[in-house]
Design a protein that fits this description.
The chain has 4 helices and 7 strands, in the order βαββββαβαβα. By secondary structure, it is α/β, with parallel strands linked by helices. It has a single domain (about 1-154), classed as Rossmann fold, CATH 3.40.50.360. The strands form 2 sheets. Strands 2-1-3-6-7 form a 5-stranded parallel sheet, with helices on both faces. It has a two-stranded antiparallel ribbon with strand order 4-5. The radius of gyration is 15 Å and the shape is globular. The structure holds flavin mononucleotide. Flavin mononucleotide binds near residues 10, 16 and 106. Flavin mononucleotide binds near residues 13 and 14.
């Protein structure tokens, strides 16, 4: 049985719902178990994650317009701190952003900013809780990217 580690944060439950449904999908269709690390539950603690992982990050911004500077990340910073700590970012094979398209150019902007800051790829995005087809689509991308990453480091 294979395993996937998911590092995520969820403030109002949408990303949490996506992670739960994604995990159920992977178990059922790929006989894959998940290790879920919910940063919100850690109360700013950090620890090393030794295995490859995917990060899933909602967007909470104040100000800015998504084109020029000026947006301020609120609430999700503990995920960035966790990924930066202990060089955890080196084991992150990709990040998925979640958000709401009503935010136009700021849609999923924080995931894009993290990809640039840490040097891992942004491998997808979804709105709010994500649909069943988002889960199927992103599960395929996660499996493909995880495999390519494992080949690269072996
Ligand atoms: C105060 C606030 C600011 C937000 N800012 C953005 C934003 O800049 N871009 C975006 O795509 N979504 C934005 N959203 C939408 C959230 O990212 C979206 O609701 C997401 O699903 C929340 O995930 P969670 O329920 O796991 O916390 C914002 C939501 C709130 C409440």
């Amino acid at each position: 049985m294979s395993q996937l580690t998911i590092v995520y944060i969820s403030l109002s439950g949408n990303t949490q719902s996506f992670v739960r449904r994604l995990s159920d999908y992977l178990k059922l269709n790929h006989d894959m178990t998940t290790r879920q690390i919910n940063i919100k539950e850690l109360d700013h603690q950090t620890f090393p994650v030794e295995e490859p992982f995917v990060a899933i990050l909602p967007t909470y911004l104040e100000g800015g317009n998504g084109i020029d500077d000026g947006d301020v990340e609120i609430l999700t910073n503990p995920l960035g701190d966790f990924i930066a700590a202990h060089d955890n970012y080196k084991h992150c094979f990709g990040i998925i952003g979640s958000g709401n398209r009503n935010f136009n150019n700021q849609y999923c902007l924080t995931a894009k900013q993290y990809a640039k800051r840490f040097g891992f790829p942004m491998i997808g995005d979804f709105e709010l809780r994500g649909t069943s087809s988002d889960i199927e689509r992103l599960a395929a991308v996660i499996l493909e990217t995880q495999e390519a990453f494992a080949t690269k480091i072996s």
